[in-house]
Amino acid sequence: MVKPFEWNFNSTILQFLPEKILHLPQQQILVVADWHLGKITHFRKNGIFVPAISHQAEYQKVKKLVKEFDIQKIILLGDLFHSEINQDWNGFEDFLREYSSIQFILTKGNHDVLADQFYSQPNLQVYPFYQIDDLIFSHQKIEVESHQLNIIGHHHPGIRIRGKARQTYSLPCFIVEDQCLILPAFGSTTGLFHFKKEENNQIYLVLGSEIVEYNP
Amino acid sequence: MKNNFAEVFYHNQNWKPHAFQKQTWKAIQNGESGLLNAPTGYGKTFAIWFGILDFYYNQSLKENPERKGLHTLWITPLRALSKEIHLATNRVSNELELDYRIELRTGDTTSSIRQKQLKNSPEALITTPESVHLLLASKTWRKFFQNLEFIVVDEWHELLGSKRGVMIELAIQTLRELNPKLKIWGISATIGNLNQAQKILIPHQESSLIKANIKKKIEVQTIFPDDVEKYPSAGHLGIKLIHKVIPIILQHQSTLLFTNTRSQAEIWYQQLITYHPDFAGQIAIHHGSLSDEVRLWVEDALHQGILKAVVCTSSLDLGVDFRSVDCVVQIGSAKGVARFLQRAGRSGHRPDETSKIFFLPTHSLEIMEGSSLKYAIENQFIEDRIPYIRSFDLLIQFMMTLAVGEGLDSDNLYQQIIQTHAYESVSKDEFNQCLMLLTHGGKSLNAYDQFHKIELDKDGLYKVTSRKIAMQHRLSIGAIVSDMMMKVKLKSGKYLGSIEESFITRLKENEAFWFAGRPLEIQQIKYNEVIVRESKKKSGTIPSWMGGRFPISTNYGDAIRHMFDEVDKRNSKKFEELRFLNPLFMEQKNKSYLPKENELLVEYIKTRNGFHLFTYPYEGKLVHEGMAAIIAYRMSKIQPMTFSISSNDYGFELLSDQDFPIEDYVFELFSSQNLSADIAQGVNIVEMARHKFRDIASIAGLVFNGYPGKAMKTKHLQANASLFFSVFEDYEPENLLYRQAFDEVYDFQLERQRMQNAFERIDAHEIILRKPKHLTPFAFPIFAELFRGRYSNEDWETRLKRIKEDLTDG
User: Mind telling me how many Å the CA of A75 is from chain B's nearest CA?
Assistant: First the structure.
């Protein structure tokens, strides 16, 4: 097995997983940003004829990690569900039921527009933001104290690497910028927003089954 | 038989009709359809128009004196051209006091006038392919077109080579079914495949081809630098010769300077003003990213003869004649013989005048093109226009168009489309797959996921029931997909044009940039608008627009290669360019070898940068990129290695840090054997297809580009085509739209057929391998290309590793 990529904030270990998920081994937590469940179905309901696809592969990924790391809590960092209600929400409710012993936290994002009734599930709690010690979890960036780290999603960060023969590769990434850690979007139907390497950021590319620091 | 209308009108103007005009009048009188091949400026509009007028009054009205409604549909590719036709034909109606009403219907026509036209149609509409399809999307199109007798397609050669040509095919087929007596006329400039153009426009019926046979005199002059640069490097865009252009502009009444890219036009405009400040206010700039308002102003000013010069791109290739223009300058390679002729024809277009065109090379080897152009013109090396076929994106769009209107009768539509050239090979199964996309959102009969775009009604017609979807479709009709552009506006609200978003985001604060011929800086950005103000800075960056960088044509390359057989005959006066380049050719000969027309030179050179392989097929940049990838793939099969690739229109280079036993393999590398397999393995087709898919997705209606003038309001429905491409790639790779992206890459980007022909040509050639000690004059411009390509043949996983190594090494 590939050794997970580790990054430390004070005494907290943060593992960047190639599944595009953040793992906090000490707390047995997974952080999943921008899943955008139901997106393709939403498109199809609006007459856009993309193939109907299932989210099964994504659930499998999460399930595998839950088992592997004995996860107790999953923080969903917003944009869990893409838009108005559709049948893909049923799949998520099944998932919650299957993992009833795990505590799910949703920090709402701009896409999470479902009526409150849908979020009222026994093992799901919804917050605008969520705090564990010096880690502040939220969908978009918020003000935090100088000793804290804000962990966010929302941006779908990626890096475009311009190969030299007109070949360009777009790769998702984790970005650390000032007091902010931006997670890649987990959903497989999300695009990328391209960031650039700047002096004040560190970029960690998801490269196949590995995480690699990007230093062009 | 005579044409009384023409006779009176021509008599009043003191004109004499050309033979081809009389011929056309007669053919129309006889009720024929046909294609008219005539150059601009010789009265091709009137050749058709008087035929139609005569037919209307002497046949249509006599047959049915009560007849009402649209009689003629005149389709042009440009709004500006529509206006010109409208003026010319109205002049006839006014002077002869005819009650034949002619109106415009284009994107500029207000909705109240559109409504009026539907209720009380004029006899003729001058319009664009998009507007015709919009009419077909109305519920009453049958009634509107029921008395239509003529369709005229202007500049058919131009439409033919684009997907808009397919829109014409679909529209004609539909209207012909409604009215089998419909007569179809096309107007085309000379192209290589004129007969094919005729058959595509008027399929399954007899038609005439009328040729004007007017030999236009063209004077081609190359602008020479003072001395020969033996090691040519591009990059100065011809600016070095600006001091020779100024007197040319001053000596003529009005000069058009054609550049190949929009940014080159901006640069030339800026440099002309800087070099000769008196030009301020006397010269202008015209290209496709400038607003209609700016362009119309320039066109008007040209008409009035108040401009000394206009720097322009292909935006002025077509259409309207400007009387004052008596000189044309082509800056850089013309890339195509037909294009060069068309541009030359923009000057001195009256029958007795000579067209005058100066060719300004941007590097010394390009000087040779002056000779090859003269040779190509003399020997009529005119390019074909390759029509699009099997454009499923447009078929789906058209299904929607009919469904938005009176309803789609799918069985009938299939019978209709297989009569067109574009869709004749489409099977019923493929047709049904397209239909399934609209009825079920794909192949899966997934009842519960509520997909619906069109639904079957009780009469067996598919209809769009959602008003929102219908409106979005009407706004999306067309085959021209624009890039993600930001609108550039002055604070006053004046709209200057559009620039790619990526350029704007790269600009630093207060950084000046040149656009529309003036220095600007950003004041504010909101949504997709950039508010700018004039900058006081004199210099600034110049935006570059994607696209528009087309390669030289096959015929153009043939003509250049032929020059190598003429080098020895340089006494011939017409090839003064070759004589001028003699020192460069001698240097090439001494350092390496000067190939003949039927030889391919391969140079293998070791420098401190590594091992270079250069070769010069003259097949254009796109084919060279593909060939290079294939040669690289073949070399790396023999011996694992990685390359950088560089190419231009003349040849390409493979650079590696490893030596290769080239003499053992040179024939094998350039063989046409196994080409298909090697393309599939060696070229990154998927990425190319992903890029092509953008247009396809937009035309087929997968991506809605928003309501005009509004920020996107389609909630949670934004996605880029690349995402859809990935979904198709993973879940439905047999999807026809997905496959179409690959077909288009093969046909238009890799130029698969042309590449095949090139390899076969090389098979028949002698390959000359040389190992010069240093870079040669032929090699140098390719070496100097700024763009450095890297190619590796490894599969994706190892490629990832490779990037990783690159990254971690750095």
Answer: 23
